[in-house]
Amino acid sequence: MSKSNVRRMGSESPGLEAPERREGERNEPDRSGGVSSPGSASRGVPDPEVAAKPKRRRFTADYKRSIVEQAEAGQDAGAIGSLLRREGLYSSHLSTWRRQSRQGELAALTPKKRGRKITVSPLLEENRKLVATNARLQKRLENAELIIDVQKKLAALLGRPIPDTPIDEGNE
How much is the pLDDT for 146? Predict the structure, then answer.
């Protein structure tokens, strides 16, 4: 007998109304007959709560490499399908990773940086190199002048002074 028939009959006879269903509470046994307990979520039962914002999965280069190798080892369709199901992956993951391995990107298969690519003008790059070279040479010059000053003082202490000769900086 369907619920609608029971309700119709219940409206005709006052004592035979269908009981209203209610949702089971957490402390009541579930339909399988087992008793639910507060710690049951830690025993393998997935948490039914959905995160407010889903988190994007990130795969390491080693993981991607191992999945591609496993897929190449098991060439029959059933093995590849079971691998994808076991790991929770889509076939698009595998095809993308295979393409990247053919292009040689798998060696450095880190997540790609998103957004605009930074373009550096050749003049700016050359300027940076020259500034770095200039700073390095200035430091070496300071060290050389310090060494020369110490040598002059040592020679003066020993009684053999070194004459000061001016350096002509304009001819270099």
Answer: 94
